[in-house]
Amino acid sequence: MPASVVIVGAGPGGTGTAAALRGRGFAGRITLIGAEDALPYQRPPLSKGYLAGTTPLAELALWPESFFGSQDIDLISGTSVTEIDTAGRRVTLSSGAGVPYDHLVLATGARPRRLPLPGAGLAGVCTLRDLRDADELRAGLSAGGHLLVLGGGFVGLEVAATARRLGMEVTVVEAGHRVMERSAGELLSGRLTEEHRRQGTRILPRREVRALRGDGAGHVRVAELDNGERVAADLVVMGVGVLPRTELAADAGLPVGDGVVVDRLLRAGPGVYALGDCARFPSRPAGRRLRLESVQNASDQARTVAAGICREPEPYTAVPWFWTEQYGLRVQLAGITAGHDRAVVKGDVAGGRFSVFCFRRDRLVGTESVNRPADHMITRRLLADGAGPGPGPDEVARPDFDLKEYHLARTAG
Q1: Of 57, 120, 240, 350, which is the most exposed, with the fewest CB atoms less than 10 Å away?
Q2: How far apart are CA 346 and CA 375, in angstroms?
Q3: In this structure, is the dihedral angle defined by the CA atoms of residues 136, 142, 146 and 152, taken in order, positive or negative?
Q4: Of 128, 145, 336, 118, nearest to 210 (Cα)?
Q5: Are 70 and 86 part of one and the same domain?
Q6: For residue 262, which of 273, 250, 247, 277 has the smallest C-alpha distance?
Q7: pLDDT number for residue 407
Q8: What backbone torsions phi and psi does residue 381 show, to the nearest 5 degrees?
Q9: How confident is the model at residue 387 (pLDDT cuts 50, 70, 90)?
Q10: Do 286 and 374 fall within a single domain?
């Protein structure tokens, strides 16, 4: 009898695993369980086109509804898993029903962090993680209103850019020294800050909100900062990171530590895999364990999990990459650039078309590119092929250095 697979979580990672299994010829039963009522959908547009009202809901779908029937994937929507019995290889649903499995895939994702501020429960205080969050936030966007964004990371800055385009007054409060501090270097961070300010957004680094105050109807209206300043806020978005959903795994006795801990094949235990935002995995490019929050990571890991289930194991070695688009700046990050000790800039920073090549001990570890997609793609190939350290910082710094020519010569050699 063919093996059965139960996938908990119908986001890009979980849905991608189901599709990859069928693509590899897996003939067993596949049950895909999602807590949301909607068809599995793309999340990046939630802070951009969907939030702005330019991308309709129908365009968010990862696959049409007919896909699941044609691929014989049993999609159970609007249902959560409440318990995992790893010994009996069975999950219990919120309906009380039990579903047996031979292989279990945890693609449970993450939930937004909410700061425990006075006034955090007021109406108009939002997070942005799923479709329901996006609908709530979109309903509150209005020209002339005041939006306060807590956190200058990917989501916070994307929401800020969308709201400014819709005519809102926007303030971004970032507790760190600069925006995108965890994911980008100082030059890129500075260029993004400059662009947001040029577009009319107020960026306040090294500041924290102490309390939110509302009106008589219980709706947020003002934020009090740690320096005593009061900032108008008709709408507040908490973009201060996420927490991996590991409760099911922990209750089942699986290893947990800032994510479900997995090996190079993304296995958390006998017959159990974990991937995407909820998984902490050994990264070859980074040389340490990581938990990455990106669609790319979830999609790539879906293929690794499918390969393992189909008894064609392929250790996960993909190069991490990320992207964001804010105003006319398309930012693409390849590799893990945090902790680099030298950077070389190529291109026109002021004009918004440049790349920052990041090195650690003279070895290329990643590139931060703005409107230079070729640099991004070639860096990913260089980091992925493992054929050597790549170009050194002195070589890249030469005025006549051309990354494409370098890559072609290296490939030919």
Answers
A1: 350
A2: 10
A3: positive
A4: 118
A5: yes
A6: 273
A7: 87
A8: -65, -40
A9: low
A10: no
In contact, 185 and 191? CB cutoff 8 Å:
no
Domain that holds residue 368: 328-412
Residues 119 and 231 in one domain: yes
**Which residue, among 102, 86, 72, has the nearest Cα to 5 in the 3D structure?**
102
Three-state SS for 123?
A: strand
**Is the full-model pTM beyond 0.85?**
yes
Any domain includes 315: no
80: tokens are: 């959560």
**Residues 157, 375, 47, CA angle at the centre, nearest 5°?**
20
User: What are the tokens at 69?
Assistant: 């029937």
Residues with Cβ within 8 Å of 258's Cβ and at least 6 positions away in sequence, in order, are: 244, 280, 291
Joined together, the tokens standing for residue 340 give 């680099």
Question: Which residues in 130-234 belong to E strands, given as ranges?
Answer: 146-150, 169-174, 202-205, 209-214, 220-225, 230-232
Q: Distance of CA 315 to CAs 36, 107, 303, 304, 354, Å?
A: 31, 18, 10, 7, 33
Contact 382, 407 (CB under 8 A): yes
Residues 221/233, Cβ–Cβ less than 8 Å: yes
For 294-344, the pLDDT digits (tens) are 999 999 999 999 999 999 999 999 999 999 999 989 999 999 888 889 999
3-state secondary structure of 170: strand
